[in-house]
Predict the structure.
Amino acid sequence: MKVRARDAKQAWQEEFESGPVRDDGIETSTISGIPLEPLYTSEDLPRRPEEYPGQFPYTRGIHPSGYRGRLWTMRQFSGFATAEETNRRYKYLLANGQTGLSVAFDMPTLMGQDSDAPTSRGEVGHCGVAIDSLADMETLFEGIPLSDITTSMTINSPAAILLCMYIAVAEKQGVSASKLGGTLQNDILKEFIAQKEFIFPPAPSMRLVVDSIEYCAKEVPKWNTISISGYHIREAGSTAAQELAFTLADGMAYVDACLERGMHIDDFASRLSFFFDAHIDFFEEIAKFRAARRIWARWMRERYGAQQERSWKLRFHTQTAGVSLTAQQPELNIARTAVEALAAVLGGTQSLHTNAMDEVLALPTDKAARLALRTQQLLAYETGVASTIDPLGGSYFVEALTDEMERQAEAYFKRIEEIGGVIPAIEVGFFQKEIADAAFRYQQELEQKRRIVVGVNEFTVEDEEPIEILRIDPRLESEQAERIAEVRRKRDQAKCSNALNGLRKAAAGTDNLMPYILDAVRAYATEGEIMHAMVEVFGTYTETAVV
Amino acid sequence: MPTAVRPVRIVVAKVGLDGHDRGVKVVARALRDAGYEVIYTGLRQTPEMVVDAALQEDAQVIGLSIHSGAHMTLFPAVVEELKRRKATDIIVFGGGIIPDDDITALKKRGVEKIFTPGTPLQEIVDWLRNRFPESTTK
């Protein structure tokens, strides 16, 4: 039999080689440049014991029941204008069947400054919701019981402050911190690497991350303290393997930092979560998700000696690739997003955000946001893809590509180690250069039409009908400034100043800063004031720009 | 020998608070490869800082990049700052996530050209060649 199978393969090979070859000049490698064979066979299957979902190394998923036990969480990232308007959008999404909240903050909030700061002009409420103090946070979750919902917050440098605001809102609702579920992005390393929303230098930034992980392990045990993110690395132009490798390397850097603090691996590892991009190259993405689980499980068990199974399991959120969307013929973005979302589901994601078709132009309208959510519901309920666990497991191609992803990631881990670790690699611009090179290479491929983006460099149309987009009222900025003024007028000023002084002193020492930040938040100190207190001690970071 | 025509110098800058520098870096590299002298300022530049850099570098062109939605405030602020510093011979172009209606408004306010997502790099180079036909590149 074996001999005949080989003969058949050889016969195919000969026919393939004498057959027609498309001469359109379009790359057959993955979008990341991994060369692909025209056909994969059982000879490409890795020799390893059969893998099962819910069992180490979790290549096939972390749950034995896959999506049969529980569907992924449909978590649409959303926030714009004021807390009041965003609160209305949340209620609208929940009423339409969304199962978790995800807060998008505006740029001033992400950069730790108040809406009335001079450098906030033109930015307030534009790419997310403006949150300046606990008062805004109370409005944001008005009428939404925090005991019944999980919330993800995409915030990094000021992450600890926003988490404290969430805890304080819960207190006011009568919900204890121990009952709160959700995720804080809190991933500062990828900010230095890719998204560049850093404020403090690396060392105090890492201290704040470890402070929040340590605090939550005791006080907010159900909270995912960090969402170690490849999304921004990928969107900045990295390849799939770079996204995978840099993200997992960041994860290990956080583990190292927590161990250095004296924490035990099994006390915090299970609250680390991940966040990946689902790009348009379908199989490469699925392979990336599968490889991520396998690598993490192995490193956690073998290198870090974690004893508990839950410490080995890589759980992740996925967002479809914003960077793959086009301003041209934007309706096509619905199709792109559906394909990307399918890759995330086949890759076994725990939660998913599907981008809206108009997000390449502005924040989504109600209608576009609903369509994006409906795309997930369609996948979950119409297509049948959630019925079988890891349906691509055993595919000659997908298994081979999963191994290739793993191999490339391991090669990067070695290079990062040779440089001395993640932070030294950031400081010499290693990641930044790798990403910029990959982005430039891809752009050149587009220019040479070796890659096609439909509607952009091929299949274009003249005179497109503009689509309706969401506009942010420019009056918002002054309204938000008035709101801060009101908070400052009404609060107990002595209590607020005392809390900020306490934080400043603690920042100069070695105490965990979370209780001090929580005090300042409860005293209605603004986000900008709390950041400022820490900047006075920690200083700020400026990167050397490399082109 | 005619007096040497100096190469066009371009200051490219990220204005505003967002740190999305993929686009600006790709454009900076492409312009440099096309023979222009490119100075990239880095992130979070205020309009004042951008104009300072352009004057110090004796640039003829300022290229601005933004992805946070603050373009209607910050792009015209750069043009205004140029007027205030009596440097209106420096031309301003920009790129980013900018809706069509805003492009018309920005042009009225003195931003010469806006490039939107999906623009081929060659189109930007061609526009500069057209705009500075008398100048050489390096």
User: Anything to note?
Assistant: Chain B touches chain A at residues 16-22, 25-26, 28-30, 32, 38, 40-44, 46, 68-74, 97, 99-101, 116-118, 120-122 (CB under 8 Å). The longest helix of chain B spans residues 71-84. Chain B has five helices and five strands. Strands of chain B lie at 9-14, 37-40, 61-66, 91-96, 113-115.
